[in-house]
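Comment thread on ticket #2218

A.B. wrote:
> Attaching the input chain for the structure job we discussed in standup.
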Amino acid sequence: MFKNFLALFILLLACLNVSSKEVNGHSLFPAPDGYFAHTEIKNSEFDNFKLPNPLYCDKKLCKSSNLGFSNSGYLSIEGKVSTIAYQKEDKQRVVKLLLIRNYQKVIEQLGGKAVSDIESEGTTLFLIEKPTTKIWVILSLGNSFEYFLTVVESNVARQILVAGQLADQINKQGFVNLNVNFDTNKSFIKDGDKPAIDEVVTLLKNDPNLKLSVEGHTDNVGNAVANKTLSQARSDSLVVYMVAAGISSKRLLAKGFGSESPISDNRTDEGKAKNRRVELVKIK
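C.D. wrote:
> Ran it. Output below, let me know if you need it in another format.
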């Protein structure tokens, strides 16, 4: 079933006339212990990546409800594509299932998961979803002496609510979620989040009577006290930014709740993602 996939890489190697020599491994996924990267097959800033064979999810053909798939189980994704071939340093056979489990552990530590079924003789697809990026990891094991790692990084369009939309939601429900994302254990504002905060500044300038409580929340991972301190620091940094943009500090209040007020189930990755948020709450 997966022979065509291996044949595709072999054909690609031949077409590119790439020699088998040691190259740098992928920056996100260094070579596992006992392996080395010997051939960089593809490195494209933007391309479409397709698998020649369908994959299975829960022992059935993956469908369009599984991200990136057609209803017939074929994967097609766009983004920055890197494919690298790896071999064991001792030139021995690849211990396939052990290799997969090692990658699975690393990917889960990064917040990812297996999308397709684990295939110790074929191809396994993993996905790491970040607020602004999806990282697809394709592990192909069709050869006894080497394996292929493909990483596709896709940027996700950020939804920024303009001042009018923020006002509508605040008037309707008394609060609105602010679409900003902080780095892990950090409270500094990233450049990519400033346009969203600038819309809040515009909102406040358009309505001089509006006062807002800027409320930070986290999931339940880690120490509860540290999470509360972190969420407070994040709210403080947002208030400082808006004050520097010309909003009176008397109209803003920073609060950090840590993991005290979840809105979703912290037992799932999706629930944790929803709980990590910043809310703008109207002060009456």
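A.B. wrote:
> Thanks. Noting for the ticket: Helices lie at 3-16, 96-109, 163-173, 194-206, 224-244, 269-275.
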